[in-house]
Amino acid sequence: MSWQPAAQKIREALNTSIPEKWRLQPSQHDGIRDVTGVPETCGLLSKDDIFITGLDASTLVEKLARGELSSTRVTEAFCARAAIAHQLVNCLTVFFPETALERARELDEHLKKTGKPIGPLHGLPIALKDTYDIPGYATTWGYAANATHLATRESATVKTLRQAGAIFFAKTTMPQAGMLLETTSNLYGRTLNPLDPAFGPGGSSGGDGALVALKGSPMTPSTDIGGSIRAPAAFNGLYGIRPTADRVPKRGMKSVESGQLNIRVSCGPLAHSLADVKLMTRVLTSWSQARYDPNSVPVPWREVDKMGGKLVFGIWEFDGVVMPHPPILRAMRETVRKLEAAGHQIIPFKMPFDCWEASRVYMDIYYQCGNEDSMALLKEANEPIMPAYQKMLDAYNVPQTPINAKQLLKLIQAQSKYRGAFCDAWDATGGLTSTGQPIDGIICPVSPLAGYPHDFLPWWGYTTLFNLVDYPSTVLPVKDVKITAVTDPKDVSYVPQDNVFDRECQEIYDPVRWANMPVSLQIVARPFDDEELIAVTEVVDQVINHTS
User: Fold this and answer.
1) Of the given ranges (207-211, 295-299, 500-504, 528-532), which has the lowest mean pLDDT?
2) Same structural domain for residues 147 and 169?
3) What is the mean pLDDT of residues 337-350?
4) What integer best gives the mean pLDDT of the chain?
5) Residue ranges making up the domain that contains 465
6) b/e map of 43-74 (b: 16 or more CB within 10 Å)?
7) Nearest 10 degrees: Cα torsion 9, 11, 16, 22
């Protein structure tokens, strides 16, 4: 088998699936650095299309449930915008608008006959990452060897959303090997960041991030095993959450490393608002069949409101491995200033262990079976390995073959120690707060960079750490922080840490190069406190982004 014919067939099918009425001309976007405005200026969308796709998911489901908008009309608008988005940034793997419109008409008829929506997402079109099974479509995970393996049943997440009323119209790109890599594969090519084509949209849910940023889907149910929700959220200026892993049913999700159970994948939304983050998280964690899913713990959703109260946050600026770039540090410090001015307390937080060693444990557990499965899939289709993937394997010296049981046991013991130490450190903050209670959350970077150029391997320790200990976290943009050479000059006095990640991270930074990228922060809460996490993030969002 050769990967080239598979790639050609998939790309031709995708191109054919885009109707002529939604096709862009190169003159409509050539030479434009930030293409987020192109869908509204290219002339292919009506005013009605632009209005509909400009609404967030929470507003849309209210209007759909009341019959103020038809599902058919909403689905058509998002399909049109998704088609345009794909032509701009290459974010889709398969596109099936007619199937989606047929389902939309069925839902419109149901609402007309009964006067009731079928669920909280009634009639809402949603794209799905290429890690979820939809019957009749391939789930490739970025590998050409999987291109002809059509799913016969739907993943639990897909079933949950469908029963809640969602409509599916496309699947989105992800990188070869799936992990926190640039969203590039031999099968689908490279996905671009809508804000700057010289940058990636984050991974592994990069297709989701790029599509949502271009408003081609109101939100997506993305996945995260090392930062794959949080990086695309940060690098596309979106909101997102990585819930506690076991809160969400995940049966039927594809992964090369799905056999390892110690670092659990989580599923959560990428969206334009925290209201949308809460909406999808509530749906995913409230599914009636979750109690029977072997990959989740049925914890009922709770309504939590932190507005009006005084909160206490830990601030964690630097992990001792890679120093964040100047705009990330500025965003944290401005956030601290605004929160303190609003009456909230901020205290320094220090990790009680070596973060480099923790990242090694994370990687060793994730690749406990070595990389032979990934290499076997590449070999099956004679695929070359992506440069970023090879860099990651080299940086962490990932073995080809599985480790033995004794080695795995030592890694699990180390993971348990990290979890215990982190829990104790969180508890200990109660002695430093004005309330006498532990902190409500930790504010920290998502990444040391506000986005990364193509083929660059960034440091992911600020996200993988929370997968290792399984603490939920949100991402929100700091909208007032814009990167400029005046406000964010390179710190020429900083001496990089003695590791390749920090040295390369500092060397590559140029504020002019990063000028178009958004700046975001991460907020972390304790396990199974996902509702509290969203509530405290709402408070921070109101303070720093002036949201209502």
Assistant:
1) 295-299
2) yes
3) 98
4) 95
5) 309-368+403-548
6) ebbeeebeebbebbbbebbeebbeeebbbbbb
7) 180
